[in-house]
Structure formats: C-alpha cells, structure tokens
Amino acid sequence: MSFDLYFVAPSQAGSDSPDLASGGLTEAGRTQWQRITAQLRELMSDLEVQDGRDQVRLAGASGAIGIDWSSERLHLVVPYWFTDEDQARTVTALLYRVVEIVENETALSSWDDQAKAEFSEDQLPQVAADILERSRIAADMVARRQSNGEPLPEGAEPGAHESGPISEVFR
Question: CA–CA separation, 28 vs 138, rounded Å?
Fold first, then answer.
C-alpha cells in the first residue's frame, strides 16, 4: 500500500485519464536522471540508486520515498509506513521537495491519480493526513493478523522496510 504520483506532460494535466510519461531512458532522460539524483542526494543523504538498462530507481530510507523511471513511466511512491503525525508531515514535506525537483528537471507535471488532479502544495495537509490514516490502517491490519495467527502479506512484516529502501519501497 502506498501513495503514488505519476508524471505527465503538462498538456495532459487535468485530463480525466492522462497518458503517463514515457521514454525516460533515452540519453536525455539519463542526463535528467543524473541531475535529479544529484539534487536528491542533498535532501536524502542515505539515497540508494539502482541503475539498470531498462529502468532506474532510487529511494531514501529517511524519507521512504522512491522514484521509478522506466521507458513506460515516471512514478513516485511513498509507502504507508508512517503512523506518527510528525513522520507523516515530514515525509509529505520531503515528497513536495522531490516533486519540485523532478518537475523542474523533466518539465513534466505530477499527477495524483486518486485525487484526479495535479499534485500541489495546497494538498500537503490532506496528503499528510491520508498517509497517516492509511499507515495506521495498515499497521492495524498487521496487528490483527498477527494476533489471529494469520499470515501477513509480503512486505507487511514489522520492520520489513528497514532492510533496504529500494527493495522494500518497490515491492
């Protein structure tokens, strides 16, 4: 379970069903990726980068924000791991900074598919509240399943996300 943003061409922002950004792994895309990564290292010192032939990913444990850029899409992920109000606000503020960097480097607009709207600073309080609420729901589900002796969904084990940000954010 995660909060997801997609990046779309500005002409499609506001469309009922925008086409997602594509072609991210061209030479120009890789250059943009390097600039994005350099700026994000300033925000998240624990940034982990995975650079493959067909896909590039990065994630930071401190913010548990991941970016996945393949030839099909540019996608940002925030797992529902934040059951404390301060944590939810902190990760949401970090999310906004990450979005600004990606938008500035790619000239794409962030798209919140759940809200069917562009992601904006005005949404931050609501996004923080949603992340907090959904994180608590996820934690409650895990606790109930554990108390009933039921198996947990993959990646839902307590502390599962602590072993490595990329492998855990992009389950």
Answer: 39
Cα–Cα nearest to 132, from 79, 67, 164, 88:
88
Phi-psi region of 149 (alpha: psi -120 to 50; beta: other; left: phi over 0): left
CATH class of residue range 1-134: alpha beta
Q: Which residues pair with 116 in a beta bridge?
A: none
> What residue spans define the domains of the chain?
1-134
- Tens digit of pLDDT per residue, the chain (171 long)? 778 888 887 765 555 544 545 544 677 777 888 898 889 888 877 777 777 655 566 666 555 777 877 766 788 888 777 778 888 888 888 888 989 999 999 888 898 888 888 888 888 888 888 888 888 887 888 788 888 888 766 555 544 444 444 444 444
Closest to 16 measured CA to CA, from 111, 157, 137, 133: 111
